[in-house]
Amino acid sequence: MTIDLGRGLACLFLIFVSTSTARAEGRTISGSIHLPPDLTAKLAPSDRLILKLYHPAEGIEKDVRYWIIDKVDFPRPFEIAPSTDMNGRMRWPAYRLDVFTDRDGDVLTIAPGELTATTDDLVPLGTSGLELELSIPDG
User: Fold this and answer.
1) To the nearest whole number, what is the mean pLDDT of the chain?
2) Residues 6 or more apart from 77 whose CB is under 8 A from it?
3) Which of 80, 77, 59 is nearest to 126 (CA)?
């Protein structure tokens, strides 16, 4: 397997420019993720932090994007932007954000022992200062 370093650097540059542009145009959601002190012992050294941004519509999750953070530390600041269409426009004005720890390598389900946080409602793009606190899921 060969890696084209030029293409890799170009992709990183485009991601940086895209996020910077989205931030400047108020098309990001930012804030911080917290872990209550009483749950610190529930966090395993190998746990990853997953941020899942999506727009719920018609019973499905649309425009889903995942951010996987391998080194988990708290509080954890974040700034995320949804994907854009071919013309650089956002598909929806608001999104839902789910955050959870992942210890089994499956980002599609919450396994026993994983912690979660989610926004109660849709969060408009341009929101800053959003605070999410991880907890043990109900059920």
Assistant:
1) 86
2) 30, 31, 32
3) 80
